[in-house]
Task: structure prediction
Amino acid sequence: MDVDDTYCETPGPIAPTPPAGAAEGPPYAECVLCREPTEYPESTKGATLCPVCAWQEAGRTACSG
Result:
């Protein structure tokens, strides 16, 4: 039986890419958890999360119930 060892590997860091309509160029706000740049401008109010931390936080919230 062939086993695909890459199936369960944790992916490396993902470089943030701002979506269309995001702030035009730096400076971007820092993620409040990992301090990586987010897709939001620094002027954004509230707790900003990078896409990776936002995904993980959504999973924790969904499973906490």
The longest helix spans residues 51-63. The two ends are 38 Å apart (CA to CA). The mean pLDDT is 77. Helices lie at 51-63.
